[in-house]
Amino acid sequence: MPTPTLTWAQLRDVKCAELEGAADGWGKSSNRADAARDRIEQQLLTGLRDTQEGEAAQAAVARLRQLGRNFQYVYTECGLLRTTLNSLAHEMRTQQRALTEALEDAAALKFTVHANGSVTYPAGGEGLVDGAPLRGGTASSSGTSGLMPPSGLIAPNPHAAKAQDIADRVCGAVRAAAEIDWRYAGILRRLKAEEGLKVPASTWKDAAGDAAEVRDAAGAYLKDAIPHDASPEARRDWWAGLTQEQREEYLAVYPDQIGNLDGIPALVRDAANRDNLQLLIGKLEGRDDEKSMTQLAGLREIDRQLGAAAKPGEPPMFLLGVSDEGNGRAIVSYGNPDTSKNVAAYVPGLNTSLDEDFAKGDLKRARDTAIGARYHDPSSAAIAWLGYDAPQLVDGFSSLAVAGDGRAVDGGARLGEFTAGIAATNENSDPHLTAIGHSYGSRTVGAATQQGGGIPGIDDIVLVGSPGVGVDRAEDLGVGKDHVFVGSAENDVVTKMPSKQQVAAGAMTSLSGPFVYVVGDIADQGDDDLWFGKDPASEAFGARRFPVDDGPSVIGRGGVSIDAHSQYFDPVRDPASANSIALIAAGRPGKVKTEEYR
């Protein structure tokens, strides 16, 4: 991406209403083309077929069909332009709002914001020696606002920190706006028709899910050249070797493939996936099947969060993957995983899919982890990784009892490729990477460690709410047993699932047996085997167990509760667990307190 040349004055003066007005114009053109296509298909073609015969009639029908396809193309392209301009206006307005708030704060404090974004502040405070006001100065942003937090090294003048904050906010808004401008400029340049409006059938895809502008064989060439079967390192190098024009073309034509390709830089993936997100929403809108409606709700919530201005102190969001494959895919990072020294990938488990609960609950877990980790080390990011199909609830809690290893093995392979991509694009010489597995996600992390020499780049592993990971010793996970951490709540029934051998021996009498088994306390308390192997919280497993809250009782006044399974990341309901996870994610595992084994 080229160095941004946008100034804060230019951002301030952008007329978003004019962009929206242009979008309305393209929308009207789209509607007219749609009406013309309808008339051709519903009136002209029908009348011609009903009343005319012969070669001339057949030739006329062929020409009308071609004309109808052309109008359909105009309808699609004009609709894409409308959506692009509206989205551009929306994102620019968000950055304008952030800039305006920073400028207003500067004016209230009587600071001066210069054309280059630096901020001059007056004298203030008192000197330690003579009590005289400390000199004023000028604060300038490092240019990484929103990607890396300030170092905390500031002048003693009390105005200095406020000026630095304003400078960083101005810089962050301008840089974000420049990235938006760059991204949309490339898309808009590609949204153009060939002379004569010749639309070969090979270029057609789903109108609601297609942003490709390529009209000829070059489209196939671009698609075939994407290195899907290469290593993440090779993909990184492939992208680096492209010209700027080629990159813009790929982003415009194949945002879904570039955005989901491990080894592509995070900023590029985020730009591609934000476009792809809109296309997926358009693709699913209007469908009435349960899967589409469920995924649409999740996508809309992710879109809402991406469009919302980040709260002070919260890391920026990066959309590293999104797809309607299987039960849905979504990979969201809080903090830039390419510039952060510490990166944690959280793998959710049982009953997770691309839905509104994931977009609200699981993303919050990653966000809370990122915020907690950045408290200990500002150069930290945390990722919610839904890159596989987790088992879904079928008969209450019985899904775990009937779940096998297949989805974990498949997910583990995908997780390994993802972390290899993170390691390949991270700009630090020795980044610290953490894999966090929750519930069945811990089994997926365990499976990833058994493929090809471990999870690429991973230094520490965290297992919470685990029904077992597929191995019986922490040292078998490939990072050293002192780098495997376990959180297991006393009232979390998933962590007390019976072993397969116990089920086979008749300890269970029905599909709901695992739940009855735990609640009834029928098990031999000396047995530390779970459904997927040795209990990670047991002494025999040998991991480092950190303190967690017991969680709500399984059976209480309100009836049956499994809430103890879902609060490990919550800094309010389980601060001890959340802080331990944050310490590990921040590369501070030595500061984690431990407790006795189960």
TrEMBL record:
<dbReference type="InterPro" id="IPR010427">
    <property type="entry name" value="DUF1023"/>
</dbReference>
<keyword id="KW-0378">Hydrolase</keyword>
<feature type="region of interest" description="Disordered">
    <location>
        <begin position="133"/>
        <end position="156"/>
    </location>
</feature>
<feature type="domain" description="DUF1023">
    <location>
        <begin position="326"/>
        <end position="499"/>
    </location>
</feature>
<dbReference type="GO" id="GO:0016787">
    <property type="term" value="F:hydrolase activity"/>
</dbReference>
<dbReference type="Pfam" id="PF06259">
    <property type="entry name" value="Abhydrolase_8"/>
</dbReference>
<feature type="compositionally biased region" description="Low complexity">
    <location>
        <begin position="136"/>
        <end position="146"/>
    </location>
</feature>
<protein>
    <submittedName>
        <fullName>Alpha/beta hydrolase family protein</fullName>
    </submittedName>
</protein>
